[in-house]
Design goal:
alpha+beta; three-stranded antiparallel β-sheet; Arc Repressor Mutant, subunit A; elongated
Length: 107
């Protein structure tokens, strides 16, 4: 299980990646993250992040009719969001390489 403190620093970039794969809505984002091995992430965590991504111009939103109930807010990546996601992944790779080198080093 990924600790919540570690997850806080990476969740925004991971959400951008999920949204980049296709237009999606909040609950589907949490389900897709779960399918990749992330622990249950509550709506109380996902929706404030989505709101921040929207306010920062990283995602584009659109309300669409749901087949079962009220309209859903769908998210797609803006160009700025794509750039942010790519920067996140570059930073993530540098960090994981540094941590791997540290832990693989023989003492």
């Amino acid at each position: 299980m990924i600790s919540s403190q570690m997850l806080k620093g990476t969740l925004e970039g991971c959400i951008l990646k999920v949204i980049s794969q296709n237009e999606t809505y909040g609950y589907e984002i949490s389900e897709r993250l779960r399918s990749y091995g992330f622990a249950e992430i509550s709506e109380g965590t996902i929706y404030p992040l989505l709101l921040r991504l929207e306010k920062n111009g990283l995602v584009i939103t659109q309300y669409k009719q749901s087949p079962v109930g009220p309209k859903r807010k769908y998210y797609s990546l803006s160009e700025k969001g794509r750039e942010e996601m790519e920067a996140f992944y570059c930073d993530w790779r540098e960090l994981t390489e540094a941590v791997n080198r540290l832990f693989e080093q023989e003492v």
